[in-house]
Amino acid sequence: MAWFMPREDNFFELFEKAAANAHVAAAELLELLEKFDDVKGRSKRIKDIEHAGDKITHDVIERLNKTFITPMDREDIHELICRVDDIVDLVDTAAHRIVLYKIEKPTEASVELARCLKHATGVIVEVMPLLRDMKNSRAISEKCIAIQTQENDADRVMHHAIAALFEARPDPIEIIKWKDIYEEIESATDRCEDVANVLDSIVLKNA
Length: 207
Hints:
Structural class: mainly alpha
Strand content: under 5%
CATH superfamily: Phosphate transport system protein phou homolog 2, domain 2
Largest sheet: none
Number of domains: 1
Order of helices and strands: HHHHHH
Helix content: over 70%
CATH architecture: Up-down Bundle
CATH class: Mainly Alpha
Number of strands: 0
């Protein structure tokens, strides 16, 4: 009757794919802001990456529904993949807003925020393979701290960026546009911290 209670370990492969996809999205956003050429084309590439992330998330949830015995708590699997997916969704929203608002040039703050996000997603890529063995619990915790550090850096950049917007006193419409874009990118780093929190919870339950 082994077929009746299969243990599905391929979730780890999907976690790693989702993390890599999120990192590619963050890297594309940073490149869009740094180079600021073919903005519509770059935004379209990010949308394609977002669709790929949705497919991975769907695959995880579908597999979760079909698997009787999972390698970790079902709610942790669901929460982890959804928070990674949120990162990509927010990156896509930020890129879309840049196009929608007809932004003429990036701000240094937007580039710094995107850089924090890229660093955070890079750490997520590094930590996902460690989940395959809970003997890596200490290394996982260290990576989670590194992710949280990037989120703290993004908070600092965000606060300075918002203050600078009002100090410069540009067109109020420009303030609204950039505040919105900053918040989307910073929210993506918040979701990175959420991923770290889920990973910490998994370690506590399974180490």
